[in-house]
Specification:
The protein has 240 residues and is mainly α. The protein is 58% helix and 2% strand.
């Protein structure tokens, strides 16, 4: 039976003091390595030890593995939503550490509150006046999606444990996240075809890592190379 989210132990809000925020961020970064192996691999005492934080500190922010996994996924979702925006075109840039405003979408109106930050619409052709693709920005977005896909089985396990608002389900949520991923890569690359190829590449690399045909490092390097090659191909002059 799914558990009601109200039965989960309460979490402390994210810290605001710089030193505490560094600890909080370090916990999430370390947790990502565990989450990629599945929810059962997320042992809070081991995460605390590897992050070099007291176990009591970790429990204050994340009383359960489910809450830790979903907090990490919310962070990644926020970064992905931010990637669909075009701050260079709008001139907007949030203050460091400032919390993002949120607006609930259809699928994210669940009990776990997976929300997106609001903002101006993305400009798919943003980059520079010559239409060049910023390779580092593109690789960053695609890498974020790659790591989210590796985490997806653990996230699905977490989502299956909570009670949803009527009319929502895990499949619908993940479908919306896939659409968001395509929008983010298109915004970063300026080309819908490049976006489709890179997302297909992500899918193949995720399967290779899960089947242990590639190490995580090898997959990441292949993904960076794919971003670079496709960026250069798009910038090359068209044949006459």
């Amino acid at each position: 039976m799914p558990e009601n989210h109200s039965d989960l132990p309460p979490m402390a809000p994210p810290p605001t003091l710089p030193r505490q925020r560094l600890r909080y961020t370090r916990i999430l970064e370390v947790a990502a390595g565990f989450v990629r192996k599945g929810l059962d691999s997320v042992v809070l005492s081991e995460v605390a030890a590897m992050a070099d934080v007291p176990l009591g500190t970790l429990y204050r922010y994340f009383p359960s593995a489910t809450q830790l996994v979903l907090a990490l996924y919310r962070k990644q979702l926020a970064e992905l939503y931010a990637a669909t925006e075009a701050p260079a075109a709008t001139g907007d840039s949030p203050a460091p550490g400032a919390p993002a405003a949120t607006a609930t979408t259809t699928a994210t109106a669940t009990a776990v509150h997976l929300k997106k930050p609001t903002g101006r619409s993305a400009n798919p052709s943003a980059g520079n006046s010559r239409g060049e693709v910023p390779v580092q920005a593109l690789a960053g977005v695609v890498m974020e999606i790659f790591h989210m896909r590796l985490m997806q089985p653990a996230v699905e396990q977490c989502l299956s444990k909570v009670v949803y608002v009527k009319g929502t389900d895990t499949t619908r949520l993940l479908r919306e996240i896939d659409a968001l991923a395509e929008k983010a890569v298109t915004a970063a690359s300026g080309d819908a075809a490049v976006s489709r190829v890179l997302l297909q590449t992500v899918t193949g690399l995720v399967q290779s890592v899960r089947c242990r045909r590639l190490s995580l490092f090898e997959a990441e390097e292949d993904l960076k190379k794919a971003c670079s090659l496709l960026s250069r191909a798009r910038q090359a002059p068209s044949p006459v």
